[in-house]
Every structure is written in structure tokens, then in C-alpha cells.
Amino acid sequence: MKQAYTWGAILAVVVASSTGDVLLSRAMKQVGDVGKYSRRAGLLAVVGRVVRNRFFLLGLVTMTLAFYSLLFALSWADVSLVGPASASLTFVANAIAGKIFLHEHVDHRRWMAALMVAGGVALLAG
Question: Domain range holding 108?
Fold first, then answer.
């Protein structure tokens, strides 16, 4: 039963973290080049523009959920399992989410790396 809680929490970390990454990426693409905007309008204007973006705020909430899910997972299992599993599966989920939701080009090398990472998680779990 404890193992089910652990993998459930790892899944929550992966889903929330990947969702947060996608939302934050979308927010920053809407904000634009912060360096150029900062030189023109100042740092406080950049901060204001970012904080008012709804995708940024939703991304912040989902990243917070990912952090607390990670804390739960670490309370149930060793960091030697939780750390690599959550980080590597998030890498795989980010490649998939980037392709689907952000329409990013994910080349063959990245897909191969994602498959190798997934294989490593399978070895770690077994």
C-alpha cells in the first residue's frame, strides 16, 4: 500500500510539474523578451507584466502542488527512488507536453533520450 502512495505521489509530481512548466512557458512567450522590455520599461514593469499573466499564476499554483506532492513522496519513500523517478519522468512528460500543447519541435535525439530515461525508471522501480 505504501508503494502505491509513493507512485501516486510521484505521478502527481510529474503531472503538476509538467503542467506548471507548460503554463509558465506559455506565459513567458506571451510576455515576450524580458530583457528588451526591461531595458525599455524597467524591471518593475516586467515583474508587473509577468505577475498579471493568468498562465503564470496557474503555473505557479501547479508548481506549488508539485512541490507538496514531492514532500509527500519523500515522506513515504527514499530519495534515491523519488528524486530520479520524478525528475526523469517529468523530462519525458515535458517532451510530450511540449510537442502537444506548445507545438514545439522535438527531434529524434530528444525522443530517444526520453525512451532511455523511461527505461532507467523501469530499472529503478524493479
Answer: 2-125
